[in-house]
Design brief:
The chain is 34% helix and 19% strand. The chain is an alpha/beta fold and 555 residues long. The strands form seven sheets. It has a seven-stranded mixed beta sheet with strand order 10-19-17-16-11-12-15. Strands 3-2-4-5-6-24 form a six-stranded mixed beta sheet. The protein has a three-stranded antiparallel beta sheet with strand order 7-8-9, sandwiched between helices. A hairpin with a 5-residue loop joins strand 4 and strand 5. Helix 1 (27-38) packs parallel to helix 4 (111-127). The longest helix is centred in the last third of the chain and has 24 residues, at 453-476. It is globular, with a radius of gyration of 23 Å. It starts with a strand and ends with a strand.
Length: 555
């Protein structure tokens, strides 16, 4: 079966006339080549200096020069951080990814290096929003990208109170009677209960399982009663799919990466779309903003985000200097109280939302919708990850925006039209795109990582897309419609992060701990908070919550 995409115009050539030399043979360099090429730069391959993951030299026609370095350790004082395996082991990624298995597990894709490439591209483009001409350096590291990817888990490890659910091993996917492995998605307890009840699972099992299932996005594990797995194994997948259809849950079998109906990594022309909005010219030319250190200072971002993807994108824009305001329901975001907490605020919430302002709206109220549109009109960027069609229903789509607004949509599927398309959530996108087959140990049954791989990478891509939209506005004095997605995150990881799988990516027991054969594997994120090697990168915010330093340096 073929799959098609909604019509997407070509990415605006923001770097037309620019030249870029990108060095490196790994994932970070590949990401930078693809992204700079998609933006119109003429990209060539250079020689990589020893000890770094990637470099890029960018030259614009107006004389602007940028030099980018992605090294392995950054400010971390650990000489063993010289490759993806060591970064995953030392920085806690193996620990988080392995929680469901009850032991550290390496990701068999180069996730940290791929994320570092996108993070580097975001800072590189942001540096171009400052005054044209001159020379500047941009630096980041694979280790900092790794720590950003586990920042929510790290914040929870340093909280004042315990987790809301236990961190015991377990979780989806499930296996049907005919041997099909599949994922389940339910955002509410009622469909979850109706689904398992109709299949005959005991109420004790599914009631006890709802909370760990609900929290799996936050904890990277979901200890479910074996009764639920036994129940699933009693029915064929077609029977399970029929029950799901009228109970309200979503199911998706785990697709192979090689299946003809699996979206290919090239199914989008670029990792994002950045297009001008017709009839949205600014009355005056857009000015350059900020300094090299904070290139987005003076810009206002309005964020309507939930979960991870959009809030992380806005968090990165804030770290670049923007003033960010979150849209929250009356009474405030309920996730502010999600345990564990630091002081009176959720540690995980702080990891994504510290230092943001908040404005409360009841979007069911006509008056509040009008007030929300007025606030959007005063912003430079409006960023959301609402369900498809919701922005249009609230008259907050790109074409509803006042002139000059950069409208950023961090979606699930980027308008992909495909049979059996599940909701655009992290684990479902991993299942449908075949990524679940690629992330686990070689020869192990396929399973999506319960670490939020795509939410995080999608959030970084969303920040990069927003910065590209601001560059378009600055150059052409126009508003912009920008979209990135979890699909584009999966595409990026499958295109740039899939390397020959090796057994040494999986740690082995070593006394009371674990090792990759060359470095010890972190098995407790709490240890990172007092580890002198991380002192320059991990601190504490005003609430006592673990907080990462800004993951790049622009000078």
């Amino acid at each position: 079966m073929s799959h098609t995409h909604a019509t997407i115009p070509a990415v605006a050539p923001l770097l037309a006339g620019a030249t870029a030399t990108v060095s490196g043979s790994g994932s970070a360099a590949e990401v930078l080549r693809i992204h700079l090429d998609a933006l119109g730069a003429a990209v060539t391959v250079g020689d990589l200096p020893r000890g770094v993951a990637a470099t890029a030299h960018l030259a614009l026609p107006d004389g602007t020069r940028r030099e980018l370095t992605v090294d392995w350790a950054g400010p971390l004082t650990e000489p063993a951080l010289t490759n993806e395996t060591a970064v995953q082991a030392i920085c806690g990624v193996m620990h988080v990814n392995g929680r469901r298995a009850g032991r550290p597990r390496g990701l068999s894709v180069d996730y940290c290096e791929t994320a570092a490439g996108v993070l580097a591209g975001t800072a590189l483009l942001a540096s171009l929003l400052t005054a044209p001409g001159g020379f500047a350096r941009v630096e980041t590291s694979v280790a900092e990208a790794a720590l950003l990817s586990i920042s929510q888990y790290l914040a929870a490890a340093g909280a004042d109170d315990p987790e809301a659910v236990g961190l015991a091993p377990g979780g989806p996917p499930f296996t049907s009677a005919d041997g099909i492995r599949f994922e389940i998605e339910s955002l509410q307890p009622e469909p979850w209960g109706a689904f398992w009840t109709e299949l005959g699972a005991g109420p004790g099992a599914w009631r006890k399982g709802w909370r760990p299932f609900q929290f799996r996005y936050a904890t990277a594990t979901a200890p479910l009663a074996e009764n639920l797995h036994d129940t699933a194994r009693a029915y064929t997948f077609d029977q399970i799919r029929a029950v799901a259809a009228h109970s309200g849950v979503q199911v998706c079998r785990l697709y192979s990466a090689a299946e003809s109906d699996t979206p290919s990594p090239q199914s989008l022309p670029a990792p994002w779309t950045v297009m001008p909005v017709p009839n949205s010219l600014l009355a005056q030319p857009d000015r350059c903003h900020g300094t090299l250190e904070t290139p987005l200072s003076g810009l206002v971002v309005l964020e309507a985000g939930r979960r991870v993807q959009a809030p992380l994108a806005a968090h990165l824009l804030r770290l670049l200097g923007a003033d960010v305001t979150r849209i929250e329901p009356p009474g405030g975001d309920p996730l502010r109280e999600m345990p564990p907490c630091s002081g009176d605020l959720s540690s995980r919430w702080l990891a994504l939302n510290r230092c943001k302002r908040a404005a409360e709206f009841d979007i069911k109220s006509t008056a509040d919708r009008k007030r929300l549109r007025a606030l959007a009109a005063e912003s430079d960027v409006f960023l959301h990850n609402w369900a498809p069609g919701k922005a249009e229903g609230l008259e907050l789509s790109a074409t509803d925006m006042p002139p000059g607004i950069v409208h950023v949509y961090t979606s699930g599927w980027s308008g992909l039209e495909l049979a059996d398309l599940p909701p655009g959530t992290d684990f479902m996108v991993q299942a449908r795109t075949g990524l679940a087959e690629l992330v686990g140990p070689p020869c192990a049954p396929p399973a999506p990582s319960l670490m939020t791989l795509l939410d995080v990478l999608g959030g970084i891509l969303g920040a990069e897309a927003a910065v590209a939209g601001l560059l378009l506005r600055q150059r052409d004095r126009t508003g912009a419609a920008v979209e990135s997605s979890l699909l584009s995150a999966s595409n990026t990881l499958r295109r740039c992060g899939v390397r020959p799988q090796t057994a040494d990516r999986q740690p082995i027991p070593d006394g009371d701990g674990w090792t990759t054969g060359t470095v010890a594997v972190a098995t407790d994120l709490g240890d990172l908070l007092t580890d002198a090697r991380f002192a320059a990168v991990i601190g504490r915010d005003e609430f006592g919550c673990p907080a990462l330093s800004t993951p790049w340096r622009i000078s």
